[in-house]
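All the exercises in this workshop are built on plain-text protein records. A record pairs a protein's sequence with a compact description of its fold. Read left to right, the backbone structure tokens trace the chain's path through space. Once this layout is familiar, the rest of the handout is easier to follow. Here is such a record, shown just as it appears in the course material:
>
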Amino acid sequence: MTLIASALMAGCTQASGDAAVFAGPEGAASVAQEPSTLPTSAAAFGNEVTQAQMDALEQGASDYQLALIDEIAAQGSVSYELAKDAAMRTVDCINDAGGDASYTESSEPGAGPLPGFLANGDPENEAAALALIDTCDYQEAHWVNYLYQVQPDFLAWQAVIDERRLDARIECLEDKGIDLPADADWNLVTGEIHELPEPDLYDCVEAGM
């Protein structure tokens, strides 16, 4: 069983049998917020950092991760190096506890790299593997990685990517004979895609990925 955990929305981790599952923007539900509630200003991001400091302290983050969050508070942003450091420490935590993990990252054109990790576990003891990953993630990376993704610069990158994906999915639907209004948004486009038969549905879901 190979588990892929990423920094996306705080390192959400999923597994399905022996398949590798990427916890991407559309699948990261544990702390994902609606776009309207995401911090799009420095002041709003500062509030997120303050909340993260309190939550991390209450929920057992390591002294090292707490220090990283303090550094983020002082800088007003999360560097790629800080996010990678947190992911690497998660890898070390898993390996030191007898697991098998390695560092990885994803990226898209026009966006910054997204630090994460790969973890292998016994498919017959999936619950224990997930528990270990969860423990190490919260201890070493959870809040740092979350803040990395909700800082204004990262959200600006993500908005560009989302717009590109929306345009690609609209084009896919129109190629399949679906008429859409000029102001079609994500909700409308997603609903129309879900009405498509297979394999057309998968074609449009994958458009822009």
Notes: The longest strand covers residues 100-106.
